[in-house]
Amino acid sequence: MKKNLNLPNALTFLRILLIPAVYITYFQLPERRWIALILYLTASFTDFLDGYLARKWNQITSFGKLFDPLADKLIVLTVLYCLAETNYAPWWVFFLVLGKEALMVLGSLFMLGKKVVVKSNIYGKTATCLFIAAIAMVFPWHNIAALFTIGHVLLYIALAASLVSMGIYAYQAVKIRPNA
Which ranges does the record mark as transmembrane (predicted)? Predict the structure, then answer.
């Protein structure tokens, strides 16, 4: 238990706490949605920071392995839900990401049962960066039409990169799957 008490895990826990804060701020303070964006960007930064620190300080834990990717999925889904609910992003993007993430969780659980961990890949990391940029541009903190348009294009590219990443994860999982 004691080895789970470290800064990378504290950052993951902070990201989990920021999820409802983003949602509540987005809907309760519509005239100040930029605050929700700052909370989202802070959560996104902690995603990069906790992983970096965990590897650098050799503080990779079971808690981090489970909750870091879960927090990542939930924060993106929360923001996509907020944006879709207020017509800043299409619902089909939210539902496609939700379905993809559900499949990833089920696949991860299956592989974990086989004692296999599929490592993250560059496509997933690229998709995450693209989602962050796209969401920042699509987020209703400005009135610049070109920025919204670029944000939507990036959102679709991020979605495509995310689906490619899922395909690669699936391929790796099948390729390295131990005999049942």
Answer: 12-29, 35-54, 122-141, 153-171
